[in-house]
Design a protein that fits this description.
single chain, 11 helices, globular
């Protein structure tokens, strides 16, 4: 979802992006990654690969850690071996969701499920393998490539008379096109700066909502506001929606550091959603 958007935008910005699919570099194989990166000799490596199916991670713990922890470390080490930085994508699910104000980059990690735990471990692996790292935490990613919450809600609305959506989890919907633009800005800033400010940054679209509010807004913007959307809590979702993983109740991220350092300020999620839906209709 993110990688495809990033390829398009990097090219527009004058970069020469080189995509590596799983057949080119299996990130669970350190040798495969090291050889693939070394052979191409890039100026920067971006890791968009991850196992992101939250409930599937509960069933496939070893695979989740192989990809999200070990794989991230392999990519970071491969970049370090040729002396270049890495941009690594992480998640709001490294937090436990017990806060009531947006999480800052230095807030303690305390993941609730396998996905969050594997991504938290991945952050540590990336940092340990390569001091020249930008770890970008984002949340609730949506995009035109692959599956996502927006597509799921629209599909269900076409086949169900009413929907049940969780209303006790809050976060910031983030659109892959906007995040990709932000990553381009960071890459540009890196090559222009003499002392790059490495570290962790939070980047999401502005504003936050619950999944229930998000679903209602999707239907409203799509001309389907007549379809009832019933709020349910996380416990009900375990039965009704077959949830397995425990999700954070509040995982809003404070994005002020990325704004101050890189001038990155993503538009409100509602505006991004309107653009996304318009683009989907025109395709």
């Amino acid at each position: 979802m993110l990688g495809a958007e990033l390829l398009e935008r990097l090219a527009r910005r004058g970069f020469a992006p080189v995509p590596l699919a799983r057949r080119d570099a299996d990130i669970t194989d350190a040798n495969s990654v090291r050889e693939a990166v070394s052979a191409r000799s890039p100026d920067m490596v971006v890791n968009c690969a991850a196992m992101t199916a939250v409930d599937a991670c509960e069933d496939e713990r070893d695979r989740a850690f192989a990809v999200n922890r070990d794989g991230a470390g392999h990519v970071s080490a491969a970049a370090a071996a040729i002396g270049v930085p890495i941009i690594h994508i992480s998640t709001d699910y490294v937090f436990d969701g017990r806060a009531n104000v947006p999480y800052k980059e230095e807030s303690p990690r305390n993941p609730l499920g396998v996905y969050g735990a594997s991504k938290a471990a991945g952050e540590l692996a990336v940092a340990a393998a390569n001091p020249e790292h930008y770890i970008i935490r984002t949340s609730w990613l949506c995009g035109k490539h692959g599956s996502n919450f927006v597509k799921t809600i629209l599909r269900l609305a076409d086949s169900h008379p009413e929907l049940n959506v969780v209303n006790d989890q809050a976060g910031s919907p983030t659109f892959a096109a906007d995040l990709a633009d932000a990553l381009c800005t960071i890459a540009t800033a890196h090559f222009e700066a003499r002392t790059p400010p490495y570290g962790i940054y939070h980047i999401t679209n502005a504003g936050f909502c619950t999944w229930h509010h998000f679903a209602k807004t999707i239907l409203e913007f799509s001309g389907k506001a007549h379809i009832p959307v019933h709020p349910i809590d996380s416990e009900q979702a375990r039965t009704m929606l077959k949830y397995k993983a425990t999700r954070p109740g509040y995982s809003v991220l404070d994005c002020s550091r990325a704004s101050a350092v890189f001038g990155v300020r993503l538009q409100p999620w509602q505006v991004a959603l309107e653009t996304y839906l318009s683009d989907m209709q025109s395709e």
